[in-house]
Amino acid sequence: MSRYALFGRSVAKSPSPQIHAAFARQAGIAMEYVGLDVEPGALPAALDAFAARGGRGANVTVPHKQAAFAACTRLSARARTAGAVNTLRLEEGQWYGDNTDGAGLVRDLTGRHSLDLRGRRALLLGAGGAARGVAPALLEAGVRELVIVNRSPERADALADALGEPGRAHTRYWEDLAGIGDFELVINATSAGRDAGAPLSLPFALCNDMTGAVDLNYGEVAIPFLAWARAAGLRTIVDGLGMLVEQAAESFEIWHGVRPDTDPVYALLREGAPEPATA
Ligand code: NDP
């Protein structure tokens, strides 16, 4: 029985153990996958302890993806560009890090939702670990322009610098959102819905007739952003459930060399989390 885990904050409700159990059943692989709560700053020690208990690989979620990057001795090219790691594999006693978030998002949008990302002007809200994972993949998928806006502007600037394509990927201030034009794609990569505080307040001026709204979050956390997209009258509204399944499939392949069939697992999870209604 090989051992895997998800490290994050408040991971008790995460569907990831259910997803990986379903993939393992499909592939006929005996594996354990559990969620483990870790406080900020405690990830390196938690990874060491897990490896000592026989852990072979891990996923990392909010807020540890940049700490996971620092904990790895070897990195994939996409993890290096992102500066964030969501998938770790133990290799000769050391952690190898990859980032499957971007591939997961693009596969969900272009495959399951048949969205053509090429030529789109896209707004990325957030510059944390998830935004750092998806930004390079969005550029690779052909978005024309990527405008990054984050509550703390220095994190947005650092992400734009890491992307290294100043002509295509650049930043604006959150306070200026009402005046930065409209977008064919608005992506919420913030964790704002997790806070007890005020929900995101976004201007409808960001939208045009073509705009698709994508929330990396799903379930209750996604409600405020998806409600905003419905109120704006958008026709394409996507939550993060499909991305969750697709990024997990990428991780599973990194660990086991087998590509799982994601559709039945997505359908199962969707039963408990209805599709975001479109206008
Ligand atoms: P991080 O903690 O690394 O980053 C959080 C981001 O949200 C930062 O940009 C932060 O801004 C911003 N933020 C937090 N609160 C607010 C607020 N009230 N108003 C505006 N911005 C805010 O988290 P991650 O990037 O790892 O994850 C972000 C979200 O994406 C999470 O909720 C996570 O569950 C989801 N996610 C979903 C995935 C999926 O597969 N569906 C995969 C990965 C993530 P600042 O820098 O100013 O603090």
Helices and strands, with pairings:
Layout: E1 2-8, H1 16-27, E2 31-37, H2 43-52, E3 55-60, H3 65-71, E4 74-75, H4 77-82, E5 87-91, E6 94-98, H5 101-112, E7 121-125, H6 129-140, E8 145-150, H7 153-163, E9 169-173, E10 183-188, E11 207-215, H8 223-231, E12 236-238, H9 241-256, H10 263-272
The structure holds NADPH dihydro-nicotinamide-adenine-dinucleotide phosphate.
Structure description:
The chain is of the alpha/beta class. It has helices at residues 16-27, 43-52, 65-71, 77-82, 101-112, 129-140, 153-163, 223-231, 241-256, 263-272, and strands at 2-8, 31-37, 55-60, 74-75, 87-91, 94-98, 121-125, 145-150, 169-173, 183-188, 207-215, 236-238. The strands form 2 sheets. Strands 2-1-3-5-6-4 form a 6-stranded mixed sheet, sandwiched between helices. The chain has a 6-stranded parallel sheet with strand order 9-8-7-10-11-12, sandwiched between helices. β1 (2-8), α1 (16-27) and β2 form a beta-alpha-beta unit. The longest helix has 16 residues, at 241-256. NADPH dihydro-nicotinamide-adenine-dinucleotide phosphate binds next to α5, α6 and α9. It catalyses: shikimate + NADP(+) = 3-dehydroshikimate + NADPH + H(+).
